[in-house]
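Q: NmrA family transcriptional regulator, please. Structure only.
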Amino acid sequence: MSKLITVFGATGNQGGSVIKHLLADSTLSKTFKIRGITRDVSKPAAQALAKQGVEMRTADLSDKSSVTEALQGSDTVFLVTNYWESAKYDVEFGQGKNVADAAKELGVQHLIFSSLLHVGKLTNGRLSHVPHFEAKADIEEYIRESGVPASFYLPGYFMSNFVQSVQKGEDGTLSFAFPVSKDAKFPLADTVEDTGKFVKAIIKNRDATLGKQILGAENYYTPEQIRSGLEAATGKKTIYTQLSAEQYKGFLPPSVAEEFLENHLFIEEPGYFNGADLKESHEILEDKLTTWKDFITKSGSF
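A: Structure for NmrA family transcriptional regulator:
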């Protein structure tokens, strides 16, 4: 009899990638029946998953009873929360808490949570305005304290962010700018393609990954490597500019300017993954990850 895996954010970047790779895996597709959770099961993306045999359901993450109903019968759960849906720490934390509590009550055997590091704690309060990281870090801590068997997937810096960040000049020149030095290290990840590769490996290596953080990035890239990669792959002259904090904030809406600034300053020091090596996280993988060059070529956005 198949086990049930419930995937939150089923039509989003991370959840969608998880379902794609579960369906494509000859072993896991036989081991698990998939339940996808999304806000609107009538949307084309949800309907497409249903046609592939995914049981699509809606759930309100802010409603504990709704979450409990969605998790009924689940052996394994992949949880991704969306801070930007409300842009409120308390809302995101409450949603993660609801899933953890329901998972414990129902006896879920493996909760995989898409987490991030706690910027404020790791910088001793120097950077204290990055709630979209800290809500996830605090949910992770709550899950650990709850006793639910859990693994933690930490997505890297989205390669897709550069689709918006890179500007095209009238002469064809490409340019991008951040408030970090050319030597800062961005752990780049093709979230849509590669999240499922990591989560699939976590599921297959459940016992070895319980309680661990799996770092979801292909490699660390400096702005100079990002720039040179873009130039080599596109044949277009590419320029990187280091901005001051005030210059950078000046390009952003006031509501997110400080948060995005501190997010990038965290990449500079102590590092997006706090200087951690990616080797151990890569050792469990069965699939080749998408490189920055691969992403540039595939996306066609530059």
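A: Brief note, in case it's useful. The first strand starts at residue 3 and ends at 8.
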